[in-house]
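Changelog-adjacent note: as of this version, every example in the card shows the full chain rather than a window. The one below runs 284 residues end to end.
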Amino acid sequence: MNSYTLRQLFDIIGSSLSELYPVTEVQAIRKLLFEKIVKMPEYRVPLNPNDLLNSDISNRILEILDELKKGNPVQYVIGEADFMDMVFEVNPSVLIPRPETEELVHWIVSNNKDNSPKILDIGTGSGCIAISLAKYISNAKVSALDVSEKALSVAKRNAITNSVNVDFKNGDILELSEFDGAPYDIIVSNPPYVRELEKQLMNRNVKDFEPHLALFVSDNDPLLFYRTIAKKSKNWLSPNGQLYFEINEAFGNEIKDMLISIGFRDVEIRKDINGKDRMAFGRF
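Full-length structure tokens:
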């Protein structure tokens, strides 16, 4: 059994990960481990460097570091991720929620905070988009679709944990011709958009551990999900209904042109905090 001081543990985390991750990611992981496992903000370390941690916490950190050295994402190792000031259970059945997706949610909320919309989230995964919209838009009625039963099980638990009601449904958007509950005021999707050819550019902890079903799309038809969802949304949206996508940064112009050609108006491509085309909007 190992027991370490705060300073020792701080240094062990840094030295264990320094050759595997960029400095900024090591810092983010260390901050997360102190918050989630040590249950203490990292800034306390220099204030109380010699405080001794119990052996259970020390050994748990060592176990986590062993998994991180294999490339396993820290969120999967600890079993949770923060999103929109909420905590979401995550495991390899679902994608890890990302800051870019928070930007999409903020956009939807800001456009609809005074409404009481019916919302459909397609490809819900962990439920992070659907649950956040149910949380932050008063009186929203939210449904969510996913092809994976395992993902839906995670999403349902997350809805309970975060005290919202979402109607989760199992189905493949590529196969569905009708959807119970239509028409909707808002349809949103963060579909698979990473091309197979982009795999080699991805970090190992994403490529080797996160679900390929939710990540990748064929090089031959990278807009498959966007086109399918946009065409079906014409029949599933109410008048003046809104369609939102998270998108591959390489296809902003193509997605804009596609939405216009299908009949959407007020089409907008919005950049994320890193200046990359990341979100699309259209009104039907």
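Structural remarks: The chain has two domains: 6-70, 80-283.
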